[in-house]
Amino acid sequence: MRNRLTVAAAYVGAVVGAGFGSGREIAHFFARHGAPGLWGAGWAAALFALVGAVVLLAGLPTQGGRPVDLYTRLCGPLLGGAIRLSSLLFLWVSLAVVDAAGAALLHGRLPPALAGALWAGAFTVMAGLGPRGQLRSNLLLVPVIVLFVLAAALYAHHGGGGPGPSARPGALPAALAGSTLYVAYNTVLVVSTLGATAVLVPSPPQAVFSGLLGGAAVGLLCMLATWALLPSASTGPLPTLPLAGVFPPGSSWARLYPLCMSAALWTTGTAVLVSWHGRGIRGPALALLAGSAFLPSLAGLALLVDRVYPLLGYTGLPLLVAILWHGVRGVLCSSHGV
């Protein structure tokens, strides 16, 4: 049971830091659509659960115990090879985004370069602990993130928050399209992380359970964060403020917000390390990659999230389609006894 929870927590950690580290993504993909954004978040929850189950089933080791090439199995040799290569850059930029978000979180307390260097240094040290040590931290931090986002959503609607924005004509189709793009945006990191952890759930029932649990938890967090942002529908430029703003200034919850967001960024950073480890990048090479991500983080969170990160994230669109088709084909084959 512990291994299944570990894999599910790794799934949550792979998405939550990137999706919640800025807060801007939830506002852009869900909350700005008003109430239909909740339907979009629910659709994202279903997609995340399906993606988790299919990817973990596809990532089960072969009978000889050898790990599989998930990209080739899901997308074929040509497209799979291209996505595998682009995912290496995606993982590196993902860690740079975490470093930049950590620097933004400490804005006004430390110079941005020093704050980013401290985050990069922490991941460089964590690189030496191996995947087990990296994944154990997720088991402790993910429940903290879930509880905080739940508290933010409840306070936003019962602690003085006003009604959410009314839905515009055509908002539901736009919300569903945005949620689909959001899932695709995160699929590359999800596949890399779950592929590296599939060995912990060696049987099909365990793989399905972990994938469904992790995906549903990610979707629930999307729904809660969207619900928290609906009263204000904040789309401001400061990436770490939207959820903190629902609490009274100076309250204990407001002071805990930076810690919660640090936990979210930490879980995504460890997901990147686990993904690299699963690709055979270990020891000094892993530490060097983790430390070098500090350099692109100097470009700033806004540039990385708004420009560079989405461009790399569009790689996930064909990968998401391949995963969904793989799942449908598996169901059809099973129903015909193939």
Enter the CATH topology name: Amino acid/polyamine transporter I
Helical content band: over 70%
Name of the CATH first level: Mainly Alpha
Going by CATH, the homologous superfamily would be Amino acid/polyamine transporter I
* Residue runs with pLDDT of under 50 for 5 or more positions: 236-240
The total of helices stands at 14
- What is the makeup of the main sheet? none
Number of domains: 1
How far apart, in Å, are the first and last alpha carbons?
Answer: 30 Å
User: What general form does the structure show?
Assistant: globular
Structural class by sheet pairing and helices: mainly alpha
Shape-level CATH architecture = Up-down Bundle
Secondary-structure element string: HHHHHHHHHHHHHH
Rg on CA atoms, Å:
19 Å
Q: Quick check: average pLDDT?
A: 81
Strand content: under 5%
Number of strands: 0
Q: How would you describe this structure in keywords?
A:
single chain, 338 residues, mainly alpha, Amino acid/polyamine transporter I, 14 helices, globular
Short account of what is shown:
The chain is mainly α.
